[in-house]
Amino acid sequence: MATIAADITLTPAAAKRVAWIAERQHKPAMLRLSVEGGGCSGFQYKFGLAEASEPGDTIAETDGVRLVVDDMSLDLVRGCAVDFVDNLGGAHFTVDNPNAASGCGCGTSFSV
Question: How many CB atoms lie within 10 A of CB 72?
């Protein structure tokens, strides 16, 4: 069973972008954040639209949009906020992760 918790946060800007992408792809407004080994700092964030939550997922909901994180990834991103930034540097999702000891310049990988 999925858990609704305050362990993760989806900002309104990120929720709006997920809803926009999901509508165009005719998918549910559900963003999956996972962590994989790799990247230039040891771990990397992976984003993708999800069809449904899975048993053990933790879910944050903002404006009807869900952010889902599997239980293994949650230990590495607990307390994080997922945001969407659109500026001169480009448009992308970001993770403000209090567990990251360091990150890389690309913003998609981190170490603990």
Answer: 10
